[in-house]
Write a structure and sequence with these properties.
Elements: H1 9-19, E1 46-51, E2 55-57, E3 73-77, E4 85-87, H2 95-99, H3 107-115, E5 121-122, E6 125-129, H4 137-154, E7 159-163
Parallel strand pairs: 1-5, 1-6, 1-7
Antiparallel strand pairs: 2-4, 3-6
Length: about 160
């Protein structure tokens, strides 16, 4: 689109944190990605979702909207009604997510895809977590990420959708 400037995301974040007195952030640079091709057709895959959008069931504790390094990970029943969620995050405009949770946690859309046979099924557990600004990358890479991957493996998940907010 002519005349539209890209959002200078990294520059804006660097300026924001510098104004708050934080040292320069050491951004992760990935030279490659461990992408693995599906081993079976999508129509036979069990799918799980992880949202980092500050989403929790109404009966669960709300997320701290200003959290930093919150490695909490909530398992969410895949059959949970989508009108039983709350959204707490100060890092994005949550208006649309509060109107339709599927913006950041697409349970209804995935249920529809499963009913249509586009995907095989939803895993019994869906996920909400890693909320807040995560600065401890080594903890994610060495502990939290592998622990989450083990949960996905236990649920025999073939495909995980990561929905950042």
């Amino acid at each position: 689109m002519a005349g539209v400037e890209p959002v200078r995301y990294v520059e804006r974040l660097n300026n924001r944190y510098r104004q708050q007195g934080f040292p320069p952030y050491a951004w992760t640079i990935n030279e490659d990605a461990p992408i693995t091709a599906l081993r079976k057709p999508l129509s036979q895959c069990r799918v799980a979702t992880l949202t980092s959008g500050g989403v929790s069931r109404c009966a669960m504790p709300a997320w701290d909207p200003d959290a930093r390094n919150d490695f909490r990970l909530d398992a969410v029943d895949a059959e949970a009604p989508t009108d039983d969620f709350q959204v707490h995050d100060s890092y994005y405009d949550t208006t649309s997510a509060k109107q339709d949770i599927n913006c950041v946690f697409p349970l209804d859309r995935l249920r529809e895809l499963a009913a249509e046979g586009v995907i095989g099924s939803l895993a019994a557990r869906q996920w909400s977590g890693f909320m807040g600004r995560i600065y401890k990358r080594s903890h994610v890479l060495e502990e939290a990420g592998p622990a989450f991957a083990a949960e996905l493996a236990a649920d025999e998940v073939d495909l995980a959708l990561l929905v950042p907010a």
